[in-house]
Amino acid sequence: AGGLPGHVVVGNIGYIADRLDVDPSSGAVQSVVGLQVTATQQSDPTELAEQQEREVASWKVVLDLNGTYNGTAYMGGWHGTSAFHSMGSSRASGICGAGCGDYEEHIHGFYNGGTQPGGRDVHALAITPEGDLRMGDADVISFVPQRSAGPDADFFQPVAIPGQPDASALDVFPGVSDNTYGLALDKAGGIYVASYGNGLAYLVPGSYAPTYWSAADKLPQNYLTGVAVEDSGDVWIATATAGVARYQPSTATWVYYTTASGLPSNDIRAVYLDKYAAAGRGVYFATDDGVAVYTGP
């Protein structure tokens, strides 16, 4: 989930997502707008039914607070990525259908020069400092220009990746399904890629040459569910059943956290970094037995 003050988007199963308008002072929910694909976005009844079937789950939501469309929420689902613009605008409660032309459904990554469409199970999204979108699915990582391309950016237009044979996508784990469950950018523009099954990769900025870590080398297991990078460069890696790993590139140091360290469970569903935490550090972990926060050194 993500949101502007008073506006929150929550991905769910059954609809695309819900937008909640919340009183920032009390936390009280004032209205709920359920997002759906309707005839407003797709007038062909057959294609409308297909789109509604595809948009039954949103695995990941990220928000560009400074977007050219007054705030955009990007929603990664089991069949591509959608966008919902004008997050900073007030809305009436009810289904977002009629009069909701600022919803765009949906884009895929395009692999192998566009001849083989990807886009299955988009579990990972990240916003670059320039306001562009990186999305990771079962097959590739795709680059989507948004804010850097100006107010009329085409959500459906892939961008060429310099020096890469594929126009708009990177196959990070060749020969197997990438199953990307987490993307995080460091200050240099490098990309950490957390895979559910293949471990962790780091793509060097510019060339995107990969470095890999696996259960055979530093990771507690290869089934990763998320990754986050602090301004210091520290990397937090969530695993499916083996707790959390913390990698400090400056010293090549690895630290591991489990229930023995105070986590409520080793089953980590997501990791979130609060860069505005009062204590200077707030790393949140969603587990199958509650939420934990790390505020230590």
Mind explaining what this structure looks like?
The chain is mostly beta strands and 297 residues long. 3% of the residues lie in helices and 40% in strands. The protein is built from one helix and 24 strands. It has a four-stranded antiparallel sheet, with no helix packed on it. Strands 10-11-12-13 form a four-stranded antiparallel sheet, with no helix packed on it. It is globular, with a radius of gyration of 19 Å.
Which keywords apply here?
4-stranded antiparallel sheet; 297 residues; mainly beta
List the helices and strands and how they pair.
Layout: E1 7-11, E2 17-22, E3 29-35, H1 45-54, E4 58-64, E5 72-77, E6 80-84, E7 103-107, E8 110-111, E9 116-117, E10 124-127, E11 133-136, E12 141-144, E13 169-170, E14 180-185, E15 191-195, E16 199-203, E17 210-213, E18 224-229, E19 235-239, E20 244-248, E21 253-257, E22 268-274, E23 282-287, E24 290-294
Classify the helix fraction into a percent range.
Answer: under 10%
The largest β sheet comes out as: 4 strands, antiparallel
Strand order of the main beta sheet, please?
Answer: 4-5-6-7
Termini gap: 27 Å
Approximate shape: globular
User: What low-confidence regions span 5 or more consecutive residues with pLDDT below 50?
Assistant: none
Q: What sequence of helices (H) and strands (E) makes up the elements?
A: EEEHEEEEEEEEEEEEEEEEEEEEE
- Structural class, by secondary structure, is mainly beta
> What is the alpha-carbon Rg in Å?
19 Å
How many beta-strand elements? 24
Q: How much of the residues is beta strand, in percent?
A: 35-45%
How many helices in DSSP terms? 1
Average pLDDT rating: 83
